[in-house]
Every structure is written in C-alpha cells, then in structure tokens.
Design brief:
Length: 491
C-alpha cells in the first residue's frame, strides 16, 4: 500500500487532517499510536542490537506517546530501557496519557539524563506538532547527546526540525535514523532537515492509502512518476526536427564556455538540433570548439527577428555567460512566446525590470522556465526570499505564481514549482553536483525537453532528475563535461 504513497509529500497540517479523517472513519487512534511505537522499537532493535541501554526521551504530545509505546515494547523484549520526559507525565492527554499509563517504567525529568557509553537515544520529544523553538531544557540534552556521540533514532522527525519547512527551530537532534509514518513530510527532504534525519524509514501504521492521498495536496518527490508519461511520449525514432531545435545564446568572446556547456547538454539530452547563437566577436572561439552543435551569428534584435521566422527553432536557453544588461532583456522578451529557459545573467538582467518579463510570461502563450539559485532568487524575488515564514517550497510556489513561470529553485534540495501551485522536491542530487558549470548543464537539459515539446513543469522536473542521476553516475571527480557524458536516457 505504501507504494501508492511513495512519492507523496504530506505537510504536517495535511497529516493532522488525515489523522482526523482516520478517526472519523472509525479507526482507533490508539491503535495507530501503538503501531507507530512498535515500529520504532523494532527499528531500534534491528539497527542497534549491541545497545547497552535504550534511552527514550518523551515530549508533551503524541510524539511522546509513541515514545512510551516504544519504551514498553523494548522493556517487554528484555532490553534495558530508561525513560526521561519533558514536562510532567501527569499533564499528558488522550492517547499519549494512555500510552504513558500503560508503560511500566519509571519516568525521570529530561534534565536528569546523563549520556553513557552504549546508550541509544530514541527521540520522541516533538514531531509534527512542533510549533515554536525548542524549550531550554531540550537544548542541554541535545548538546550532551551530540557531545557524547550517542546514536539517535528519531520518531517522525528529529526534535527541532520543522516538518513543514525543514528549518531547525533553535536546535535539533541529528538522527542516525528516522522512522516516520505513512508518508514523507517536506521537512524530511528540505535542507537542513534532510541531513538531520539520517536514513529515513516510512512505516505504514494502517491508515488507508486512499485517506492519505485524498487529503494530500499537489506536492510530490521528484521521481519519474511525476513526469514519466510526458517523457515516454517522446518517440526517439522521429525526424530530427520533430525532436526540436534548441537555440542557446552565447556571450562575448571571453565568456563563451557556459553557453557551449548548455548547448552540449541540450544535444546529449535529446534535442534534435542545437544551434549556438553567437555575437560576431565570439564566432571564431565558438567555432573552434564545436562539432555537432551548429553555429549562427546574431548581432542584434534584428538578426534575431530574422532567425525567428524559422518556426522550427522552438526552444531557447538564455543566460549562461551571456552578460547582464539590455541586450539580454531585449532578446529574452523576444523569445518568451516560444519556450525559454532563463538562467543566470538572463534572470539577473531583469532584477530592476521584472514586471515586463512577468507580464510577457503571462500573456505570450509561451513556456518560461527560470532556474535561480538562492542568490538569484533573492535578486528577482526579494520580498518572497525575505519572508521567513515561508518554506523553500512555498517560496518557489509564490515566485511561480508571481512570475507566471515555472521556477526551478536550485540547491541540494531543488524545488520545481508551477504557477498552478504544483510542486516537486528533488532528492537524487549528490553533493558533488555543486560543481562549476553544473547549472549550465541543467539549463541545457531543460531546453532540450522544451524543444521536444514537453510542458514546462514536466520539462523542468525531468531535467532536474536527469541532472541528479548524471551527477551520481559521473561520481565524485565530476566536471561539467563528464556530467554531460553521463546524462541518462529519459525513462
Ligand atoms: N500521523 C499519525 O497518524 C500519527 C501520529 N503520531 C505521532 O503524533 C505526533 C504528532 O503529535 P502532536 O500533534 O501531539 O505533536 P507533538 O507531539 O509533536 O507535540 C505537540 C505538543 O508539544 C507542544 N509544543 C509544540 N512546540 C513546542 C515547543 N517548542 N516547546 C514546548 N512545547 C511545544 C504542543 O503544544 C503540544 O502539546 C507525530 O509526530 C507522531 O509521532 C502517532 O501517535 C501515530 C499516529
Ligand atoms: K521526534
């Protein structure tokens, strides 16, 4: 059943609605808590059979309830278990109170916990209900646990990690393993939450998948399931023009490499034809480096207008190494009504003139994809970037709505968002992908997909995924060139 939920991301608020729907449908909530706690105890025994003592840290809500169930199960199994609580156990309510009453172990205050060699901590302080920064007492405990290098298994989320945003609220545990329930939450994928989770296990506690998917929104993990149907519709046997013609715009003679990387990536990613568009002064240097990619001299908007009479040139990449300024803006506005990947200098050129671009994107009938990293995002969308209440996903969604473009908000946790609010979070990129030229390659792959006729959101999401796979295949010593050689076929 979890297969159906494998790619779904559920926010804590949606999870609360799912819990309620489960209860309304007659499912006993204490049974769910018991399944959750049992799954945690099973993980603890499986992962740390050599533990001398399991130390269960229980919080004031249902996350703590899961902890009491796990503690009871571990003690039943004959393990040495100690329980420490944040807040008074008498103040617990509902299922958590019931789980605590059923637990035969004595409970000591959290602050009394002194880590010992051989301990394994089960962190059940806070999960999805974390609503503000961690309280003072938790800080001390977390510090001692990390100083003592005590392995941590987190229940649902490492305490301190916000399930909606992946942000750390004050401080957090860094877990070796996290057991979450039914479906992943944004905080498991977004940074820095992702690295605080350690290995992530999703356990089915028995809520019917239908109840979960009906209440989950449009948020997915970026896997071929999110766009595969559009990819498989591309027939590799078609005539080369039917696989599209991608134009990549080169900068001046001293900055041509980035555009050539985009062009080479576009060709490797399946564009039928790729033309590098070059100003006169860079023709010679570009020509000396190109083989399969074609070259065309375009000096100004007039030249560009002439070339655009050829309707077969259907997608463009503008930005890598292009230079910031009026020429970039003029060219981009002319290309908006086809399909355009606006990257790097292309976006920065609109820092003080974004309204015109967004207006064109809204009304031209074309497809626009923008690929900002954090700095570029802040330049183009300063008010969204500065809104501390928004998660990275929500920022990308707000930017997409405002700009009428598909936004690829890059980073180790790249988010792709459409103006409709649909979004995916990417999870297959190795850290080594943060290498010079990597962004140019990504822009080229998006361009290739647009040239092949994919809708903008799918084109961008599929490109981010292929880029991540290529990074994994290219391995740690990768360069932008080896990244291109390792772009996998579309699945
Ligand atoms: N999703 C599900 O279907 C199930 C969820 N379960 C567990 O329930 C958890 C969610 O339970 P809750 O909603 O009770 O939330 P939590 O147990 O995460 O925490 C909520 C409690 O902590 C308080 N609180 C929040 N932030 C605080 C802070 N910074 N300092 C001090 N107090 C703070 C709240 O007022 C509330 O009393 C999940 O993480 C999961 O572990 C399980 O029991 C099984 C079923
Ligand atoms: K926790």
């Amino acid at each position: 059943m979890l297969d159906a939920l494998q790619n779904v991301l559920v926010t804590p608020a949606e999870m609360t609605a799912i819990d309620k729907a489960a209860a309304d449908s007659g499912i006993d909530s204490f049974t769910l808590m018991r399944s959750a706690g049992m799954a945690v105890s099973a993980a603890a025994l499986r992962l740390f059979p050599e533990a001398l003592r399991f130390v269960v840290l229980c919080g004031p809500g249902n996350n703590g309830g899961d902890g009491y169930v796990a503690a009871s199960a571990l003690a039943d199994g004959g393990a040495d278990v100690a329980v420490f609580a944040l807040g008074k156990p008498e103040a617990l309510k509902g299922d958590a109170a019931r789980a605590q009453r059923a637990c035969p172990l004595s409970v000591q205050p959290l602050i009394a916990y002194e880590p010992q060699v051989g301990d394994v901590v089960i962190d059940a302080l806070f999960g999805a209900g974390l609503a503000r920064d961690l309280p003072e007492e938790a800080y001390e405990t977390i510090e001692r646990v990390s100083e003592g290098r005590i392995p941590v298994i987190a229940v649902d989320l490492p305490s301190g990690v916000d399930g909606r945003t992946g942000e750390v609220r004050g401080t957090s545990f860094t877990a070796a393993h996290t057991v979450t329930f039914m479906a992943r939450k944004p905080g498991h994928l977004l940074m820095p939450g992702r690295v605080r989770c350690g290995a992530l296990e999703v356990f089915d506690i028995g809520i019917p998948a239908r109840l979960v998917s009906e209440r989950a929104g449009d948020l997915r993990i970026n896997t071929p399931a999110a766009w595969g149907s559009h990819a498989s519709a591309l027939d590799p046997a078609t005539h080369k023009y039917r696989r599209g013609h991608l134009g990549v715009l080169s900068g001046g003679s001293l900055s041509t490499g980035a555009a050539r990387l985009s062009a080479a990536a576009g060709l490797a990613a399946g564009a039928g034809l790729v033309t590098l568009v070059s100003p006169a002064e860079a023709l010679a240097v570009n020509a000396s480096h190109l083989t399969a990619v074609m070259l065309r001299e375009i000096r100004d908007t007039e030249d560009l207008a002439t070339w655009l009479k050829d309707k077969r040139v259907n997608a463009f990449v503008l930005g890598p190494g292009f230079g910031v300024g009026k020429k970039a803006r003029d060219f981009a506005l002319m290309l908006c009504d086809r399909a355009l990947v606006l990257d790097a200098d292309g976006m920065t050129s609109f820092e003080k003139a974004r309204a015109e671009l967004f207006e064109r994107a809204a009304n031209s009938g074309g497809r626009l994809v923008m690929t900002p990293h954090e700095g570029e995002f802040a330049r183009l969308f300063p008010e969204i970037a500065a809104d501390a209440a928004l998660s990275k996903i929500e920022k990308a969604q707000a930017a997409a709505r405002l700009s009428h473009a598909v936004i690829v908000y890059k980073g180790p946790d790249t988010v792709v968002a459409a103006p409709s609010g649909r979004a995916v979070v990417n999870a297959n990129a190795p850290p080594s992908l943060a290498t010079a030229g990597s962004g140019d390659v990504l822009a080229g792959i998006v361009g290739a997909h647009l040239a092949q006729g994919m809708p903008a959101f799918e084109a961008a999401a599929a490109a981010v995924w292929r880029h991540g796979e290529a990074g994994t295949r290219a391995g740690r010593g990768m360069t932008a060139e080896t990244l291109i050689e390792n772009i996998p076929p579309l699945p």
